[in-house]
Known about the structure:
Elements: H1 3-14, H2 24-40, H3 45-59, H4 70-85, E1 100-106, H5 112-125, E2 130-135, H6 140-152, E3 157-158, H7 166-179, E4 184-189, H8 197-210, E5 214-220, H9 225-237, E6 242-246, H10 255-264, E7 268-272, E8 280-282, H11 285-292, H12 298-308, H13 311-322, H14 328-339, H15 344-347, H16 365-374, H17 378-382, H18 391-401, H19 405-422, H20 430-449
Parallel strand pairs: 1-4, 1-5, 2-3, 2-4, 5-6, 6-7
Antiparallel strand pairs: 7-8
Amino acid sequence: MFEYLQKNLNKALYILKGNNKITEINIVETLKEIHRALIDADVSYKIAKTFVQKIKEKSIGRKVLTSLNPKQLIIKIVYDELVLLMGEKKMDINLSNNPSIILICGLQGSGKTSFSSKLAFFLRKKNKTPLLVAADIHRPAAIDQLKIMGDKENIPVFFLRESKSVIEIMEKSFIYASEKKHNVIIIDTAGRLSIDQIMMDEIKKIHQYSQPSETLFVVDAMTGQDAINTVQVFSKYLNIDGIVMTKLDGDSRGGVAITMSSVVGKPIKFISNGEKVEDMEIFYPERIANRILGMGDIISFVEKVQEQFDEEKTKKIYRKISKNRFDFEDLLEQIQQVKKIGSIKNIVSMIPGMANFFVKDKKDSLNQIESIILSMTPYERNHPKVFTDDIRRKKRISKGAGVTLMDMDLFLKQFYNISRMMKTIKENSGKEIIKNFLSKIINKENNNMH
């Protein structure tokens, strides 16, 4: 996410390295490269020009504090301008009513149905009781898609398979929600290949009947500037409260995400960056600006870790560690807990400096470790010491896992290091196990990338 823009902005800012003051001469090339980076990232020419002009005005003549260098000062100015461009602060969705009704709309293929299920999953973690409503009466597979997603996460889905009336679906879903005490209703509506009168008449009808607390318009980031045009046209017909950007994990250059709010005057409230139900985030302009400038987003990273943290399991592992019984089964359990956060690729932009070392097509090291452990017998998993000086076991497992013998030796060395490290952790510091384990995995990935 934003890798392309981040790479080009870093290249632009590198020009100032070594200079001890900002002058019109040494900043010209930097501003030129920043402008080019924005254009290449699919930011409109007008916005890119204004953005660069503001940076120039705020940097020329500024005294550089002794604690800063010109590059750091420009980064601070660029950061401030990016935050302003993206809406300045995060905007929450309105959940004040009971039930709170959230209307999801957008073009066909933008990811409305997937986002609806992600939002329901997200709100359930916030102690809400969401109900998904399948209100797409035009696409036969829409109900099945939403139901499959809902069933997978045990989220109820209301649908009337034979009904061709969106008003009937609304009416009966509200009765059902009241009976089952759902305090949030998420309505997944039909999309079209383009905005047309039939679509607008239907969505206006749904909006008027449901009186939603929140109307969210879902746009595909990969459509670039067309996404902005779509929201602008749609806004003429129906008032929307916020925007959802999807498919930011694809080949999106990110320009539409950083300019959408300022162009259409509506806040981006969520971003979706993966296929898993947990691959969704609240849109924080300041955090995204940090990621774009390669400064990471530790707050979001810690939040993801805490969401998946299981204190009871960690205490159980500590008790085994204290008795010198930490084995490969325990390590496998920890890996599976970490993987719930997301792949190294998805979280790399949240860790300062990691993006510089990340190789896009690098095989995920967590998957490799998992394969090695799963290639062992139950006895081997519970008795790590059997591998000491046993080359035959190592060869058999490396072959079964599809890794080299060198990879196998590196893994065993890492495991023994983790085991020794964990012995120093106190029981009431259980979260440190996760923290240090992550650190070891990330450092291994970092070393491999060199």
